[in-house]
Amino acid sequence: MSIPDLEALHALGPAQQPTYPDKGAVDAAVARLRTMPPLVFAGECDDLTAKIAAVTRGEAFLLQGGDCAETFAGVTADNVRNKLRVLLQMAVVLTYAASVPVVKVGRLAGQYAKPRSSDFETRDGVTLPAYRGDAVNGFDFTSEARIPDPQRLVDVYNSSAATLNLVRAFVTGGYADLRQVHTWNTDFVRESPVGQQYEAMANEIERALTFMKAIGADPDEFHRVDFHSSHEALVLEYEHALTRIDSRTDLPYDVSGHFVWIGERTRQLDNAHVELLSHIRNPIGVKLGPTTTPDDALALAAKLNPQNEPGRLTFITRFGAGRIRDGLPNLVEKVTAAGVEVAWVCDPMHGNTFEASSGYKTRRFDDVIDEVQGFFDVHRSLGTWPGGIHVELTGDDVTECVGGGEELLEVDLGHRYESVCDPRLNRVQSLELAFLVAEMLRK
Ligand code: PEP
Ligand code: MN
């Protein structure tokens, strides 16, 4: 199967692309990227497809999470470990409390490019091009920083490689060993009520592990986890340069990450993103907002998964807490009636963003929970499987979303607001979410 060349994709008039001032520099960066080794193997992508097929069948639950936007400065050992740690904690809560296998996917090692609702940003009467993620331009509010620089795409590759290298070392080198279940619960989170709840669960798990060991059972699964990377496939130069023909199968894979998705703003059927992702063999996702019609979803499924293979396609719905109960049923009903194989995942973040009076972009923890509850209610009433959650989170105790057990208020947002894009759940809020979702799964 051949893939369209970059020029052909650009001829489709893709949305949300950087306007590079220097075409020669773009060609040089793309040429460099084409020589770089794959970040992931095609066989690993196939393994993830098989796991998401289990989600599609209602036999597993997908946990996908990480920053809204990774930054180059954020590629530090502490930062990567903290994100991995909260995802491992959430996964163990979901697995243990709900007795369901959890497919773990980080929104990391490639999540550097952002679609924006406006091409410009104005501060104090000064208007500059919007920040489009470290993949494209700088966050500093200066005209120099905001010029798109294609060399950044090579930096994305290197930062992703460094992140993935550390993640792989952590998950196979002992850190993700279930016997570390207590170790993940350190520092500030341990003292919180949800940290105590986790501690009690970890004690139970430890007792179970001791018992298993005593009877001579010590399977490999106790010592390592499968963990996958994902990001929005947005900048065509980058994703195209990392699309390679797999030597085993002769089929194209985007080897920049295991799972890639198309955002709400770039999912037009005839656009370049849908075209490119229709050719690659990775498991893929599409974000679906409240304006999505059943016909849109069916057309996307026909184009992106013409063989109707389970595991290939995930629909990530992001309706907002106020709209999911009215809007989602029709979509799920029609897609299901058409026999489309898809994993349904809830992004309870992007339909619930608002600006606090202080000017910070934020989300209410209660709205996040309410959207996930609505997602479960809709799927339960239709007899379909609420297959997973896609969340923006961090392993640190930032103050970006309001509410939760710590009862963060709008006036607290300034204490530690570090996101360069959308507000993330902090570690305590993320763990609370995991326990609440485990409850929903159990019912
Ligand atoms: C995102 O995931 O950060 C994002 C921009 O989402 P959406 O495409 O759903 O708006
Ligand atoms: Mn976001």
TrEMBL record:
Keyword Heme: no
Catalysis performed (reactions): D-erythrose 4-phosphate + phosphoenolpyruvate + H2O = 7-phospho-2-dehydro-3-deoxy-D-arabino-heptonate + phosphate
EC number in record: 2.5.1.54
Record has Flavoprotein as a keyword: no
Pathway the protein contributes to: Metabolic intermediate biosynthesis; chorismate biosynthesis; chorismate from D-erythrose 4-phosphate and phosphoenolpyruvate: step 1/7
Domain of life of the organism encoding this protein: Bacteria
InterPro entries from the UniProt entry: Aldolase_TIM, DAHP_synth_2
Keywords for this protein: Amino-acid biosynthesis, Aromatic amino acid biosynthesis, Transferase
Similarity comment: Belongs to the class-II DAHP synthase family.
Protein name: Phospho-2-dehydro-3-deoxyheptonate aldolase
